[in-house]
Amino acid sequence: MKNFKLLSILLIIFMVASLSIGCSNKDDVNSSQEEKSLDSNSYTTQTVTNSFTTTIYEEDISLKITYPQINELANKELETKVNTTIKDEFLGIQSLLAAEANVVDDSFEITSKTADILSIKYNIVTSPDNIKKYSYFETININMKNGNLIEMKKLFNSEESVEKIKSIVDDIIEKEDLNIENPIGNENIFENIYFTDKNMIIFDRNDQSVEIKVPLNKIMDYINI
């Protein structure tokens, strides 16, 4: 039953890409400056809290959302694109959850902040029945060269790249004795990713308990970043 409820909650998130959301930014409530990236394409991150009015299913919902933004990027057009993408992703996730899943806690952590990748792990706790709580996370990965979202379905350069990375992941699973199927190329597993500065982390969206750490230096030639 617990897995069924968790799967139901996750299915809500899958609707984000197809849902049209109307919103207006009301006020900038809070912001705090954080450390600066050390890469040549340097930028800082800032935590902001804004209020939005969002329309879902013909009903207006007021939300106050805390999310990261970037500053001091030399390319201001790219900076604006990245910030809009982050805001829209957080708002889309929170809007659906507010309407359906009763969010009781949420937080985010920036797991990678480099000249190539900005990766955000968005931790969420829901309680649909106000009794039991369910914890899981969403990920937002942005290619800092062009501001586009890094999507799993568009990540690999070619079919040969898929096979190469699948082989690398097989070796990691065997070496670390992980109790998980290789998600790469497996149509029965809805895999997702986030990044640290040195690794790509692969996990099953329906079972986030096991993560596979794949060194970026082994796969950069095979992925579209």
Keywords:
signal; 41% strand; disordered N terminus; 9 strands; 3-stranded antiparallel beta sheet; Lipoprotein; alpha+beta; 2 domains
Q: Can you tell me the CATH class of the largest domain?
A: Alpha Beta
CATH topology of the largest domain: Heat Shock Protein 90
> Helix/strand-derived class?
alpha+beta
**Percent of residues in β-strands:** 35-45%
Q: Tell me about the biggest sheet? A: 3 strands, antiparallel
From the spread of the alpha carbons, the general shape counts as globular
Count of DSSP strands: 9
Amino- and carboxy-terminal Cα gap:
39 Å
Strand order of the largest sheet: 1-2-3
Rg, rounded, reads 18 Å
Mean pLDDT: 82
Helix content: 25-40%
Number of helices: 4
- By oligomeric state, this entry counts as single chain
The CATH architecture of the largest domain would be 2-Layer Sandwich
User: Structurally, how many domains make up the residues?
Assistant: 2
